[in-house]
Amino acid sequence: MPKYAYRAFDGLGRLETGVLEADSERAAVASFQSRGFLVTSLAARDEKEKERPRRRLGGYFRVNRRDLVIVTRQLATMVSAGLPIISALRVLAEQIINRRLREVIVRVRLGIERGGSLSDEIARYPEAFFPFYVNTIRAGEVSGVLDTSMNYLADYLERELDLTQKVKTAATYPVVVGAFTTLVAIGAIAFVVPVFITIFASFKVQLPIVTVIVIRASNIFRHFWWAGMLLAVGLGMGMVVLRSSEIGQRIMDAVILKVPIVGSLVSKLSLSRFGRAMAVLIRSGGPMLEGLGVVAGALGNRVIGDAVLSARERMQAGESMSQSLQRNRLIPPMVAQMVRVGEESGTVDAIFDKVAEFYEREVDNTVKRFASIVEPVLIVGVGGLVAVVALAVLMPVWSLISKLPR
Predict the structure, then answer these.
(1) pTM of the prediction?
(2) What spatial distance separates the first Cα and last Cα of the chain, rounded to whole Å?
(3) Which CATH superfamily groups domain 160-406?
C-alpha cells in the first residue's frame, strides 16, 4: 500500500506531520477530512528516502542511559500535554546539555519536518536509541497512542535504570576492596619482602615454610612481572575479541549463567526486563510476534533471549504463549503459569507487570544477600593476606631473637 508524507493541522490549529498508508492520495485526504484535519502538504513517500542508511555521528558515541531516561520522560510529558512532536523536540533540544545527543534530537526533528515519522527517524541512530525503544514508539504511532506509549517507555527506562544501579552499587564495594587488596599484596611482595630477604640472608637461620613460600613468590614476581602483564593484557584482549563475535557473546552469557550467585542474579534481572518490556509492548499495541523478537534482544543475556525466540517460533506454529514459555528450562514454570492466568482472564499486560515486580524484588533481595556474603569473605581474605605476610616476616625474627645470648 502506498505511503504518503503529510503535514496537517488539527481542529485546534496544531501541526502534525508523519506518514500515512492509504490506497490513493484521494483516500488519504478523505481520511484526514473525516477527522477534521486540514491537509497542507501530501506527497507520495520516496522509497529511497525511506531506506536511507542509518546515520552515525563521528567518533565513538553512546548515549548514557540516564540521559535517555530524562529525554524520554520530558518528551512524554510534552506530548501528553498536547504539544506537537516537532515543537516538543525543538524545546527538548534547547534543554539537553549533552552536545552530541542534542545533535541527534535536532536531526530527528529535521527528518520529521521532511515528512518522516518519529520511529523511522530515531531508528537511524542506533547508537542513541536501541531497537526496543524504536519499536515501542512505532507501535504507539500505528495504534494512535504515542503519548501513552512514551509514558510506558519512560516508566520502563526509569525502573530499568534503578535496577541496574542497584546491581552496580552492590558490585562496586567488592571490586574496590579486591583491587585495593591486590595492589597492597603486590606492593608487599615487590618492595617489602625483598628488604627482609637481605636481612635473613645475612643470618644463618632456617626459615619457616610460610616465609619460604612468600620469598619464592616475591622472586617469581620480581623476575617475571612482565609475563604477568602480558597474560593480563592477553586475557583482556581475548575477552574483547570473544565479546565482539556473536558466538563468543553467547558462550560468555552461558558461562555467566552457571556462575553461583551471579548467574542467578543475571537470570532474575533478565526475567524482570522481559516482564516489564512485554507489558510495555502489549499496552502500546505492538504486534506480539514481532515484538517478542525485539524484546529478546533487550534482556541483556543472549541465552535467555534465545529462549524467548524459541517461544516465538512455537507461537508461530500455533501454540499459546504460556505453552511456548513452559517448554524452555530457562523460563521458570511460575512465569508460564502466570501468563496462562493472564491469557484466560484477558489481563496479560497486568500479569507481565506482576512478573516484572516479582523478579525486581528478587534482584533486590539477591543483591542484599550477595553484599551480606561478600563483606565477611573480603574481611577474612584481607585479614588472611595480612596475617600471612606478617607471619612470613615476624617468624624468622622471633627465631633470631630466641637464639640471642641472654
Answers:
(1) 0.67
(2) 106
(3) Type II secretion system (T2SS), domain F (1.20.81.30)
On the CB side of 173, CA atoms within 13 Å amount to: 16
User: In the prediction, which pLDDT does 85 show?
Assistant: 86
CA-closest candidate to residue 278, choices 239, 315, 237: 315
pLDDT value at 386 more than 70: yes
Three-class SS state of 42: strand
Residue pair 38/8 in contact (Cβ under 8 Å)? The answer is yes
- Containing 19, the helix (H) or strand (E) segment is strand 15-21
Domain ranges of the chain: 1-51, 160-406
User: In which order are the strands placed within the sheet that holds 38-44?
Assistant: 15-21, 3-9, 38-44
Give the list of residues 6+ apart from residue 93 with CB closer than 8 angstroms, or none. 102, 105, 106, 109
- Do the beta carbons of residue 228 and residue 217 sit within 8 Å? no
The number of C-alpha atoms within 13 Å of 205 and in the hemisphere containing its C-beta is: 23
Here the cell at position 346 is: 484477558
Alpha-carbon distance of 26 to 74, in angstroms, equals 37
